[in-house]
Amino acid sequence: MNDRYLDKVQQPGVLEKLSQGECTTLCTEIREELIERVTKNGGHLASNLGVVELTVALHRAFDLPKDRIIFDVSHQAYVHKLLSGRLAQFETLRTPGGLSGFQKRDESDYDAFGGGHASTSLSAALGFAQADRVCGRDNYTVAVVGDGAFTGGMIHEALNNCQNDLRLIIILNENEMSISPNTGHFASYISNIRSSKEYFGIKRKAKRFFSKNATGKKVIHFLSRQKERIKGVLLLDNYFEQMGIKYLGPIDGHDQQKLELLLSEAKQNACCTLIHIKTVKGKGHKPAEEHPDRYHGIAPAGSASVPTFSAHFGTCLETLAQDDPRICAITAAMADGTGLSGFAKKFPQRFFDVGIAEEHALTFAAGLSAAGMKPVFAIYSTFLQRSYDQLIHDAALQNLPLVLAVDRAGFAKADGPTHHGLFDVSMALSLPQSQIFAPLTFDALDEQLRIGIASDALTFIRYRSGGQAEHADELPYIYKEGFLRASISDGPLDGAILTYGQLSGEALKAQKAAKRMGKRIALLVLEKLTPDPRLLRVLQVLLKDCPALVFAEEGVRNGGAGELYKRTLLPLLKNQVSFTVLAVDNPFLLATKEEDLYSRHELSAAHIVKAILSKQQI
After folding, report:
1. What confidence score (pLDDT) does residue 214 get?
2. Active site residues
3. Given this model, what pLDDT does residue 184 score?
4. What are the φ/ψ torsions at residue 215 (nearest 5 degrees)?
5. Is the pLDDT at 189 greater than 50, yes or no?
6. Taking every pair of C-alpha atoms in the chain, what is the biggest distance, in angstroms?
7. Which residue ranges form the domains of the chain, and what is each CATH number?
8. Rounded CA gap, 53 and 27, in Å?
9. Are 500 and 461 in contact (CB under 8 A)?
10. Most Cβ neighbours (<10 Å): which of 10, 522, 586, 593?
11. Contacts (Cβ under 8 Å, ≥6 apart) of 321
12. Would you say residue 617 has pLDDT above 50?
């Protein structure tokens, strides 16, 4: 029988009865479980190690799942999963068919709202709190927000709409980190005396004493006004209290007893309250404490380390920036992840980390462009979605040249739908006069980056997580200017595959499988997705008399490249070819234990071969 407290608290009601000493032991056990599992499966380690005591305190102080905890991004919700009956499934974390690396509504009643992107938690929590107010419910809603998320505008938009009478508690977790170090963090406004047990006891007793008669109530009103005036003079005003939100803290976020005290105080206040805590990212694991950026997200054990597109992009941009003082680099709190750390050191005056503010970053880049600079905004595909309005209105509409280095394009196998990069192509193709590249190799990335910086067009360069395609040498260019690669044998064709990006590896497997079946299939790989007239003429010649064409795309079908090429290329082929588009119809579909993502979305080599040989027309 296992004697761990972590095993015992899987039963309802056990956690609340533990002594403080037992809770300390539980926190140690949780950290051991996190380190063992996350180093094996990969995932977010440092952030979860930093919220162990906080999460234990929240689970002890609130009636879950009646009350709700919404973690911003929710990559730090692993401890929450361990305390909400999911210990037995924890070994499946971030694996097909297993536990998500984020809060997920259909995974547990304890996950009230799904996560994945930053700065959304408070808006969602505010929605819950207002619904409770309207319906007359007594639920509490807690939003746990890192200070990095406060660099995002949505948090402040939500704060602007917080009403004092809501049962809403906001935990401001200050650890001075998002993924890269924050460009700024909240200063300590209130002394620690405001978080002491004696302070709250005296405060409540004084209030009860003076509330017994009309004169006493006037005294309370007078003292309250004087307190606010003194705070305003000495503390230069507290941002949150100026917004009408009660502020408590700052306190040590690893002092579980004090955390429970403040949570209890916030509940007794029965009003919108913010508790400011300070934590150490990576707490309890020395390597993660010393290098929280490296341990923010770690790869599964045994993963091979290879040169990545991200790192190569950063090196190439540094080289180009040495010769052109107008080149600027922009990141939204992702300098390390996008390969821009070296650029930041070499060209600090031309490097801009705007925080978790992708919308601002895009319009900021447009402003730099309008002022004669050459901005390059490096961003993960999944986060580019947040800038769609700015792409349309501030960049494309004004025909401003800038480069979008779209990292992590395609499926995000471990993180799942919240981080899939499946919408960027359809977004980019909807913008007139833009150009879209999809390099298979580092050399191609170098050339495309030079083209984009020199161009007057809005340029997207999308590349996968990890390194260059190992199969690229099997796909030589047949039209270099148009970045078209091919593997074609002589003689009449039984069919052809047209694709781009990392799915080209699966398409190559399909071509070889068809060859073993005695079928002659051409493979054409686009490294530039924009179908200019010359490229279309080249494809027209290559595909003459081809009976079946499959466009395989690791992106959404609607508005994607497959539908565009079907519309523009098919008339040139005089509708004599069976044109099938294989693309992602439901980007939110999850992988299972039995199927990988390509099979799940019918993009595997087997599905491609079947589509060609059956000559299906979609």
Report:
1. 64
2. 281, 358, 386
3. 39
4. -65, -45
5. no
6. 102
7. 5-190+239-290 (3.40.50.970), 309-462 (3.40.50.970), 485-614 (3.40.50.920)
8. 7
9. no
10. 522
11. 327, 329, 343, 346, 347, 350
12. no
